[in-house]
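Incident review: delayed structure delivery

Summary: a single-chain prediction request sat in the queue longer than the usual turnaround. Root cause was a stuck worker, restarted by the on-call engineer. No data loss occurred. The affected request and its eventual output are reproduced below so the record is complete for anyone auditing the incident later.

Affected input:
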Amino acid sequence: MADRLALQTALDDYKRDFVDKTWPEEKYKWQAVKHFQDNWQLNAEDFPAMLKRSLEKTGNLLASAGSFPRSMIERFSRSDPERVRAMFAALFDESVDLHERMEAFKDESTSFLEPDDSRTHFQDENTISTYLWLRYPDKYYIYKWSECRAVSNKLALGYRFKKGDYANNVRDHFTMYEVICAAAQADPELRNLLDSQLAGDCYPDPALKTLTIDIAFYISRSSGETTDTNTEADTEVEEPNYWWLVASPHQKFRFSNLDVGGLEGWSLVNENGRKRNIYQNFLDANEGDLVVGYESHPVKQVVALGRIGAKQDGEHLWFEKTEGLVTPIDYSTISGTPELAGMQSLATNMRGSLFKLTKAEYETILDLVRESNPLVSPKQNDPYTKEEFLSEVYMSEPDYDRLVNVLRRKKNLILQGAPGVGKTFAAQRLAWSIMGQRDADRVAFIQFHQNYSYEDFMMGYKPTDQGFELRRGIFYEFCKKAENNPSLDFFFIIDEINRGNLSKIFGELLMLIESDYRGKSATLAYSGEAFSVPANVHIIGMMNTADRSLAMIDYALRRRFSFVPMTPGFDTEGFRRYQTGLDDQMLDQLVVSVQTLNAEISKDPSLGSGFCIGHSYFCGQDAATPEWMRAVVDYDLMPMLEEYWFDDDVKVERWRDLLRGVVEA
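Output delivered after worker restart:
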């Protein structure tokens, strides 16, 4: 269900702006419907002329820079009027499933083009839904993928609108707009506002479907913005230009490197001293223009967003990075998106060039970026406090404070201890307590093992159906996410950190993760790009000190981490409170016996305190039953003691008798 407050706020904003701002710009929609209704005649003798006349008021609904659906369908009708007449007759046949009709219209449009034709017919879902709305304005809405995604996000509707999933996208679009339409119909002020502006050349819109289309457009672009009513006159803001910057093979995207005060200059001539391709575009670019950064080597993909940071100095064009992408947008995604069909050649040719994009193309690319690189929103998470940490983790408050201070100073921390002391449990809650909330988007969790590699962790080539493809690993993507949200803390948690080949996994990161080198760049081996570990990334590792099969941790990595021992928390205030709440004498006796056992383990020269039994074996229970305690002794504690004292059967049997004597009393 939509966020009612968000929807009502959007409607209130729309009503505020309707007369003075919205209607003067958007009334052509109601005029377009009225004009179509007055002129549409499927059986007209001169079908091409009728079609052209019916669509002539649609304006940018069926024509925009880089997209020409109206002119293409009119061209098709001139070449084969009866075929196009049949296409519209089938499209407007309400007895057939909507998706089938839309697919058939697209297929017929494709058949007008030769196999080697570089053009596109532009008859996509957005265009076809516009035809349906013009014909049945009391039933249909205009579908636009990027607009639907924006509306769903702003109204918290939860629809995904996945690229290429046309049938579900159109269905969800209709369902979503019905929610908005119902809210509009229930608001008499909206009806009165519309009626006060409608003239004879406008469709009366009895079902408010066209008004709903306009409200959705408003929500996707303007909802939530405030109007400054105190200014003496409106200040006109110049619309920025939108550019597609294709990197040269060796230059890459230096503007995504912040080492030069956030700016990086591209000379207006290439490495050979020649003017860059489409030189005039470099001259026409202005400060504040928005830029999509694209690389064609080693793989074709959008890697960053930026803006023109300053005017040209006559020799250079300066760029400022606004966002590096956690997940770059592959060329296959661009080529498979109908709204970007007109720019496919830009992604394959002319390295070192600056191409002009339409606003619609830029916004579609931005939607693709947002789908794969969602910005972190910390407002939607449950709060988590230091007090909650202490009540759950069973650590003393001074120990907690020291732990937080060490992590903030060093950036890298390893919690070490025997099984059962709550290392993993504590690591996640330590992250939450520092963030102040349970935010899963800012915490990553992985486990090292002997086969884990740099290619899994950072990046490497992976096999595909076509050969090999460069893939980015989980730590690379996590760092990019943190880089995009510099004001927030992020936590990367590694379980069993000493089980992996650490030099092999970390590679050049051994230097970059060091606290003194955060934010400084090194060149990555596979991609050749400059990469840094942001200062807001904190790494928490867990190390099992009781596993004899593991070698000592790499000394190079040891120097870059602080090591914090975690010990059993039987004596902490939190555990005592938990134990008191269970109120069971058998449990009390078992805890005393385990504490005695831990004292003996600590004194054993072959073991030591790192092998003590942890408190977590006794946690998480609502009631202390004899069956549960016997299972802990038989299946958790005794197998561990048999491993500890594998060469001392007498000691094992003594403790077996002592512990079982407690739980079988």
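Verification: Residues 12 and 515 are 49 Å apart (CA to CA).
Action items: add queue-age alerting; document worker restart procedure.
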